[in-house]
Design a protein that fits this description.
Blueprint: E1 3-12, H1 17-28, E2 32-39, E3 42-52, H2 58-66, E4 71-81
Length: 82
């Protein structure tokens, strides 16, 4: 059993940034989450999770994030054993 750390870049639909942020906190309880300015007023959420690789996977977490209303795109930024 290994411990995995993964950072997702989460993009919200226009005007739904706060809704997405609150939805992720409530539904998934990430280890940490920060807003990052990308360009021209566009913000993304950098969401960090840790998990045991025998209990779940980054793709399952990604699918759960995509189900949150207002999420437009999710991509894995970094993934590593910790």
């Amino acid at each position: 059993m290994s411990k995995v750390g993964v950072i997702f870049n989460v993009y919200a639909e226009e005007g739904k940034f706060d809704q997405v942020s609150q939805g992720i906190k409530a539904k998934l309880n990430p280890a940490s989450m920060d807003a990052q300015d990308v360009a021209f007023g566009i913000k993304i959420l950098k969401v960090f999770f840790t998990f045991d690789d025998d209990k779940t996977s980054s793709s399952k977490i990604e699918d759960s994030i995509k189900e949150i209303p207002g999420v437009s795109q999710v991509e894995v930024s970094e993934e590593s054993l910790i």
